[in-house]
Amino acid sequence: MQLDLADLESVRKFVDDFRATEKKLSVLINNAGLAMNFKDTRRQYTKDKFEATMGTNHIGNVSNNLPFFQHALRFLLFFQFFR
After folding, report:
1. DSSP-based three-state secondary structure for 56
2. What's the pTM value of the predicted model, to 2 decimals?
3. Could you tell me if residue 20 is inside a domain?
4. Do residues 1 and 17 lie in contact, with contact meaning Cβ atoms separated by under 8 Å?
5. Are 52 and 34 in contact (CB under 8 A)?
6. Per the structure, how many domains does the chain have?
7. Does the residue 65 lie in any domain?
């Protein structure tokens, strides 16, 4: 399975492909670290028109994690709200 965090269609396909295997997900490590070349000042964008760093390091990871951790996320959001 391949995953490109800069392409939300790739993220959706990865989630669907993983679910099709019916394997259990025990650990998910988020290690996206896109660093930009500071000498090149042109803005770069993902396929989905997000700024490249934000799209890859944040939006791609969240989009990948949500389908796997929907129940845990609801609990965490509830806990943070009433903290």
Report:
1. helix
2. 0.66
3. yes
4. yes
5. yes
6. 1
7. yes
